[in-house]
Amino acid sequence: MSSPLSRGAVRAASLQASASPLRVHHGAVAAAVLALLQPAWAQQAVADPAIPTLAPVTVSASGLNLGEDDMSTPVSVLEGQELVLRRGANLGDTLAGEPGVSASHFGAGASRPIIRGMDGPRVKVLADGVEIHDASNVSPDHAVTAEPLLARQVEVLRGPSALIHGGGAVGGVVNVLDNRIPTRRPERGFEGGVELQGRSGAREAAGAFDLTTALGDNLVLHLEGSRREAKDYRVGKNWSGGRKVEGSDAASDTFSAGLSWVGTRGYIGLAYSTQSSRYGLPGHSHEFEGCHPHGDHLHCGGHDDHGHGEEEGAHEEEGHGEAHAEEGHDHGHEHETHGTPWVKLRTERVDLRGEYLDPLPGFTRARVRAAVTRYRHDEIEGGEIGTTFRNKSQEGRVELEHQPIAGWRGLIGWQGSQRRFSALGEEAYVAPTDTTRHALFVLEQKQFGDVRVDAALRHEWQRIDVDSLTQRDTSHRGTSFSAGAQWRFQPGWSLGGTFSHSSRLPTAEELYADGLHLATRTYEMGNDQLRKESSRNIDLTLARTAGDTTFSVTAFHNRVKNYIYADTLDAHEGLQLIQYAQRDATFTGLEAKLRQKLGRHAGVTVFGDYVRAKIDAESGGNRNLPRIPAQRVGVRLDGDYQGFGAWAEVVRTASQRRVADYESVTPGYTLLNLGLSYRTQVQRLDTLFYVRADNLTDKLAFAHTSFIKDAAPLRGRSVTVGARVSF
């Protein structure tokens, strides 16, 4: 990994490595844009030096190069040393400590970010603005194919600030920036880095390298790779299931090669990336293989009792029934297993990225992104492939930033994608589908004295063709818009607010699922009558960004009409019969972070989040939605002196008692985390040494957001030791 850069630093040449997230699509559009750019590339050697350079970028996914403090809704940016010290084995674990962000947690191999209680297709995971296109949004047992060790910057946009990346991203967007396509020529002709890391508790070892080198005046080559391997991880003390989670081992290899043409007015480049990984699927059981639905009830051998009172984990309304004791709650394995299945995953991806200044009269910048992905994973048991998932996709995006019009600065854009998804084998619970999507969008911003106003509009449409004799093809369209403002009423103080109306179109899995999914212990039934979701979202943020005391407090309220969710109809010994249904729902919550300086070298931070998600009263019955994260609060003390850094953190996660039907209460827990780092020069090379201790008291903890929380508790005590050298 290349050496970290301070946020907003202007890079050499004319571009930043964090260039904004503009993308293009299919071959015809890409060819047209390249044809437009070609004459300019030929003239780079004699380009006018008076042409302005690109503005520094802080939040690439904002669309208009806004800084973190300039957004009307909250944004988190992890980069540089902070990212190095926070990185986990996967993207979900890396971001789980951010206010408003939790993780799906499916053992060690798969963990996807959850934002404000929303997951799956409501949270888009992007690689420099283009969706990653693995299968992680289909099911929580499918891994996110972004490798944290190779990330340069990770951005989390919550709520309506993510509108230009999709009306369906109601929860938010996670944008992972990397260096695989160089955007500038290294100052000394080359640069790079090497990192090694080891972690106890799972005998985990990981390493990564990257190298960027100039090949002449304009060509720049980038190479990077990583390897990660871990055994079954240890959990907290006193778990009745043992000391380790069987089947939680994981290993992965990632490699990328990219080549760019970089000039004084822009760049264009291609990169080829590949990842191979293997990870276990904890909690798998064969006892459900003969189960099937009879109407809205499960039939599993002798189970045909339609009463719900005997079901394990029958729902407990808030304030009713006894919660499981926080200590000694029996989360042991309930069924005999016959060998843990595992996933063999491989993905290949080709990226095209380009950016060009003053491309056309009236426009200041053109940005292009495109990607073609071939993804496959096999679920293997007993040496034989049980189910194969394939995802063949192509996506692109083009944006044109126009010159100010009556003081309004903005951009127009187009995005399109095509996705061929199939599942073949024993657990092929979704018929093969072809999904085609297109979208047009516009984003505008203007300053009125101390108030900055922004607005966005996006219209998208999709068609899904299904290979089934019993299910029908579907098409949907929707329009989303948002309007926001930020008032800087005092130096260092701001008040921001956003209102948005978002349309989310149903996914192929929600429409057409029909089969047993043993990894999540569910029998899933889709519904091809589903309509689009419509949500009205309000965000209010009060922030202070200067002085010894800084803070940000955000309140949000989202009302979703026709909210699509997995409604549990029946259950048998842990297997749930779920059907995708629609009800009106409401999400309300708070996110807060306050930091107080304690002199020149120390500070204390208090942070927390809360989300309440429920089905509206007129829907009747139990109003709680499933797998909603519990509230959290934490305190972090940190200090630095002459290259040394140290921190201590205590995070309390409350018990989750607001549970859905057939869902059990999850006990609360408190984690203690410590860390120490030292930055120095070794043979004139910038070197960072670090050690981190997580869950130092070895607390037994369970994630309420996980489908397999009882079979795979969170990690117990672990110590991470690493070193990173940059040149």
Automatic annotation (TrEMBL):
Domain TonB-dependent receptor plug: 70-173
Gene Ontology CC terms, in alphabetical order: cell outer membrane
Boundaries of every TonB-dependent receptor-like beta-barrel domain copy: 330-696
Biased composition (Basic and acidic residues): 303-338
Pfam family membership, one: Plug
Keywords linked to the UniProt accession: Cell outer membrane, Membrane, Receptor, TonB box, Transmembrane, Transmembrane beta strand, Transport
Family matches, as SUPFAM superfamilies: Porins
Family matches, as InterPro entries: Beta-barrel_TonB (IPR000531), Beta-barrel_TonB_sf (IPR036942), Plug_dom (IPR012910), Plug_dom_sf (IPR037066), TonB-dep_rcpt-like (IPR039426)
Gene3D superfamilies listed in its UniProt record: TonB-dependent receptor, beta-barrel domain, TonB-dependent receptor, plug domain
Segments of this protein annotated with the region Disordered: 303-341
Record PROSITE patterns: TONB_DEPENDENT_REC_3
Top-level taxon of origin: Bacteria
GO biological process entries: siderophore transmembrane transport
Membrane topology listed for this record: Multi-pass membrane protein
Keyword Protein biosynthesis: no
Record protein name field: TonB-dependent receptor
